[in-house]
# Entry
Amino acid sequence: MTDMLKFLLAAISALFGGFLTALGGFLATLYQAKKARKIRMDEVIAEKIVDANTEGCQKMKYIASWLGYKTLQDVLDFILKNESWFFLNRLYLFKKFPNKWITIRNYVMEAIKLEKQLPEKASELESLKKALIKLANDANLLIINEMDVDAIEVETIQY
# Structure
C-alpha cells in the first residue's frame, strides 16, 4: 500500500505542478495582453494629440490671418464651421487652447456687434481685432511650444 500511496502523491504533485504551471502561463499572458492594450491605447491617444494640435495650429493661423484681411463674419463663419471639429478634439488639445478658441469665438461675435456701431466704435473695434490676432497667435505658440517645435521666424533680407 505504501507504493500505491507514493504513486498517488507523486501523481497529485505532478498534476498540481502542471496546474500551477498552466495558471502561471495564463496569468503571464493576461498581464502581457493588458500591458499591450495599454501601450496601444497610449499610442492611439498620442496620435490623436498630434493630429488635433496640428490641425488646431492650422486653424488658428487661418483665424489670425483672416482677422487682418477678411470680414469678421467670414472669421465667425469659419469658427462656427469648425465647432464640431473643436468639440470632438477638445480632450486632445493642449492646455489652454480650448479656452482661447472659445474666447476668440465669443469676442469675434462681440466685434461684429461693434462693427454695426461704426464709425463711433472704430477705435474700440481696431483694438479688439488686434487683441484677437494676438490671442490667436498665442494659441499657436502654445501648441508649438508644447510639441517642442521651433517657431518659424521670417528673416529680414537686404535687396
User: Anything to note?
Assistant: The CA atoms of residues 39 and 103 lie 35 Å apart. The chain has one domain: 2-146. The chain has a mean pLDDT of 91. Residues 2-146 form one domain.
